[in-house]
Structure formats: C-alpha cells, structure tokens
Model the fold of this input.
Amino acid sequence: MEISKQGISDWVLRGWLYPGKKYFAVGDGIYVKNMQDLEWSKDNDPDLITIYCIKGIRLNDIFAGASYDRLYHFNGTEWKKLSPEDPTSSSSTINIKDNIVVAAGLHRNQA
Done:
C-alpha cells in the first residue's frame, strides 16, 4: 500500500503506526495522518523540532526522542516534555517493554 506524502516534509527520519488508525512520522517535527486522510498534519508545538525517534503502545501513550536530550510523552491530548534539555545530548532510539521506556542516543559525541 502506498502512503501519500502530501503535507509532509522531505526530512523524515522514522515512523510509527497504530494499526488501522494513525501514522506518525518524525524529522523536522511530528507529523500525523489518519489512515483515510490524504494529507499529513504537522504538530504546531514550537518545541517539537528535530525529532529523531517515535514509538508508542497506544494512541494515548507515545514517546518521542529529540535533540538536546529532549524526551516527550503524548497522552492522547498533548505532548509533555519529560526531561530537561541538554545541548550536548540527543535521544535517537526508544524501546518500550511492559511499563519500562528506554531512550538511547549520544552524549557529547559518545554513545
């Protein structure tokens, strides 16, 4: 199945989907698309820039990692920042198992 690229940036790094409901894509922001929609919509939160990874369990339990070591959680209504900013770090991958969320990336150019 082909997915429309209408309304989405050319700078997309990763995606996550909730089967049968929504697609999420990240890169220069967070983009969301319902399965039946033709066009993507971008979250307008100015903090949600340079997002490297996204993963979730449900539509009201999604995590995103970003530059400056920012980690976000989506509760179904809004994105909340979970960690303070650190300009020398970034989160580039997220894994979730049971009630544990692990984010990994770089800190001062070290893995």
User: Anything to note?
Assistant: The chain has a mean pLDDT of 89. DSSP finds no helices and ten strands in the chain. Strands lie at 12-18, 22-27, 30-34, 41-42, 51-58, 61-66, 71-74, 79-81, 89-97, 100-107.
